[in-house]
Amino acid sequence: MKDEKQAAIELEQWITDASGSGLEPMVELSEKINRHKANILNSVRCQANSAKSEAVNTTIKVLIKMARGFRNIGNMIALIYLKCSDIVIPLHNRPQMSSEKAAATRKTANELRKRRQSGPVPE
User: Fold this and answer.
1) Beta bridge partners of 94
2) What digits encode the pLDDT tens for the residues 59-104?
3) C-alpha distances in angstroms, 66 versus 61, 80, 123?
4) Among residues 81, 86, 110, which one has the least CA distance to residue 100?
5) Class of residue 83 by CB neighbours under 10 A (exposed 0-12, middle 13-18, buried 19+)
6) How many CB atoms within 10 Å of residue 30?
7) What is the pLDDT of residues 24-49, one digit of tens each?
8) Taking the model in full, what pTM does it have?
9) Are the CB atoms for 63 and 79 separated by under 8 Å?
C-alpha cells in the first residue's frame, strides 16, 4: 500500500478480525502486530522495503560463486567491495563517470522512476 491512512485502517481491521478469530496462534500474532503497528505504518509511509539489501545479497552470492577458484579469501572480499561500492577505478582509453556523476545519474533515474510509479499527472 502507498497510502498510510488506508494502510492503518486495513491493518486495524485485520488485527480486529485476527484477535476475534478464536484461534490462539492468530490471537498471538495479532497482539504482536499490534505492538509493532507504529513501525509497520512507518515502513508504509517511507515506502521502505528490503529490495536494496536483497539485491546486494544476491550480488554477493554470485560473486562468491565466481570466486570459487581464488586462492585466498582476501581477493574475494576485495571483489565484493569493488562490485558493491561506488569505487571508480580509472582505466586507460576507457571513459568512465566519476563517482559524483554516477550518483547524480542514479538520483535522476530514481526521481524518474518515482514519477512513473505515481501515475499520470492530471492536467
Assistant:
1) 91
2) 999 998 988 888 888 988 888 888 888 777 777 777 777 778 888 8
3) 9, 11, 51
4) 86
5) middle
6) 19
7) 999 999 999 999 999 999 888 888 77
8) 0.46
9) yes
Q: pLDDT at position 96, please?
A: 74
Residue in the structure block whose three cell numbers are 503497528:
37
Rounded Cα distance, 73 and 56, in Å: 19
Instruction: Specify the long-range contacts of residues 80-86, CB closer than 8 Å, at least 24 apart.
Output: 83/59, 84/56, 84/59, 84/60
Task: With CA atoms as reference, report the closest residue to 60 among 75, 79, 74, 73.
Answer: 79
Residue with cell 485485520: 14
User: Three-state SS for 100?
Assistant: helix
Phi-psi region of 95 (alpha: psi -120 to 50; beta: other; left: phi over 0): beta
For residue 120, pLDDT beyond 70: no
